Amino acid sequence: MQLCIENVDQSGGCAYGYACVYTDTISWASPTDPLPMVRDPRVAFDQLFGAGGSPEERASRRQVNKSILDFITGRVSQLKRQLGPADLIRLDRYLEHVRELERRIERVEVQNRSGEGRELPEAPAGVPDSFQEHVQLMFDLQALAFASDVTRVFSFKMGRDSSARVFPGSGVNKPFHPASHHGGNEKNITDFAEINRYHISMLPYFLERLESTMEGDTHLLDRTMIIYGSPMGDPNVHNHKRCPLFVAGGASGGLEGNLHLRAEPGTPMANVMLSLAHKLGLDDMERFGNSTGDFSLSL
Question: Which of 244, 278, 282 lies closest to 297, judged by CA?
Fold first, then answer.
């Protein structure tokens, strides 16, 4: 499933002769076929946990059953009769988290439909004006989906590459993309670094959420691989060489951790992605994108 924070319906030309869709989309069905991404937490919630085969059917269900849990009460009661004490506790905790997430989305929708002014007037009612709140809702959706094995893969684009959004929580009041063109000025570089620091500061929330969710004899963080990266090595000149990324989580024992690796110049990032796919058990994958081989993930 593909999630995002900002609109991605951009067109026209961008740097290096690419269409702007390549700066807005990180999940593709083919080299020319981008997969749709979901910005609205309500839409994502309904796709993952909702009842009904269409948005209209799911909206109709909400008019009858305010919570998705109301819709499945009978099935939950039947399941509980088949579970032991430990699994009962786990199920109750999971359903509590689903309901709490549902309530948070409802509160956002009520606020955004109240008629009060919005910072993001073009955004759907389920999208919070707060960047942090929006990101956390999306992280919680992912964690709950992983816990119930609804899906095993998410992509999450936390901002458009050429975003003009301002992030007051970073302490910098410059729009993101203009700030990235720092011109080599030390103060401008520092400002842009603070915006990036703010973005990355969102991630521990997700890691802690996974770490607090048990999966068998360990927690979800040990079972998961999280890849966080950037499309730019030097945004001041739109240079997409030496793009940084980091990997977190245990990948079920596939990752060593506590490593800092530097690729040789000219190494395709696809080599890293290919090796990470192998760590996830996809041993029959011979190529990924423009990969030229594996990238060693150990010293």
Answer: 278
